[in-house]
Write a structure and sequence with these properties.
Helix content is about 55%, strand content about 10%. By secondary structure, the chain is α/β, with parallel strands linked by helices. The chain has a five-stranded mixed β-sheet. α3 (about 50-70) links the parallel β2 (about 40-45) and β3. α3 (about 50-70) runs parallel beside α5 (about 125-135), α5 (about 125-135) packs across α6 and α7 (about 165-175) crosses α9. The chain is globular.
Length: about 260
Amino acid sequence: MTRRLCLLAIFVLTLLPGCARWSKGPVLPSRNEMRLDQLVIASDAPLPAQHRLLDELRAQRTIVSQKLGLSTSVEPIHVYLFPSAEKLESYLRVHYPTLPKRRAFFVESDTRLSVFAYWGDRVAEDLRHEVAHGYLHAVVPNLPLWLDEGLAEYFEVARGQSGVNRAHLELLAGEAAPPWRPDLTRLEMLGETAEMSQAEYAQSWAWVHFLLESSPERQEILRGYLRLLVAGQARESLYQQLRRTDPQCDQHLLDHLAVLRQSLR
């Protein structure tokens, strides 16, 4: 059973009738709830009516839709904000014991899209990333893992920075012995997040940024692939489609990253 299936199975068990009544363990934040279009945000502390981060998460729905040429969805994305890392970790130990320790995560079940996070120093980055997963999964079925994570890494970057993830750019620039070479075929074979190191996240982000920001033609290739996924008609991988129009895409990706590094100096 893959990690994704394990998460779904565990999540469904937590929704079974009577589970909340019988459980003696930590529970989800629920005292306060706010609806922001598709987002349903729950917390134990009161949420301000106007908050820059919440406004940003709400606006991200339109940004994702317009950037990727996707429709929007009305399917709710439930965002649970814990007051501390300890509270979140306590909940995870009971309800998701197989998950590694992390600051936030997204879970999709047959009936629900959920984000779990806590208010910390990196809450904005965490929520932009996980909520992006929610917006994507609400409209695109069977999204390949590398693309799912690459898009989330792109959209976790604050507005006004064109999706440039400096940490990933620096990581890839530092892989010089031996020199890092793109290998999207290998990324396309990944099926579990446990298989992805920071290098795989960085490489996934790099391909997404290359496709979205290097030329209108490449952006349309990505958009077209997403439309095929939505329609259930994707017969070949994104890399196969890209290589037909750009046989030198691996080198062009490296050139794109070199230009980005130069522009940030």
